[in-house]
Amino acid sequence: MTQIIKGGNLPLSGEPMRVAVVRRSGGAEAPKVDAAALLVDADGRARGRGDLVFYNQPEHAGSAVRLLGEAQGEEGVVADWLEIDPGRIEDSVERVVVAASCDGGTFGEVEGLYVRAVSATTGAQLALYAVEDATTETAILLGEFYRRNGGWKFRAVGQGYDSGLPALATDFGFSASEDEADDEDGQAPEVVPEAPVAAPAPALVVVDKADVPVPYSGAPIAAPLPRLNALPAEFGPEFPYFEYQGEGKEDVETGLTLPRGFIAVDVVKKGAGYLDIVTLTIRKRRWRQVVRSRMDDLRGVGVLHHDGQSPLRLRIETRGRWMIRLRPVSTLRAFDGPVEGYGPDVLAYTGDETGVRFRFEGDEDKKGYFGVAAHRKGGHWEYRFSRRDRGRGKGDLPRGPRLLVVEADGAWSMEPRAGGGGGFWSRSRS
Question: Which end of the chain is more exposed for a tag (fewer CB within 10 A), N or C?
Answer without folding.
Answer: C
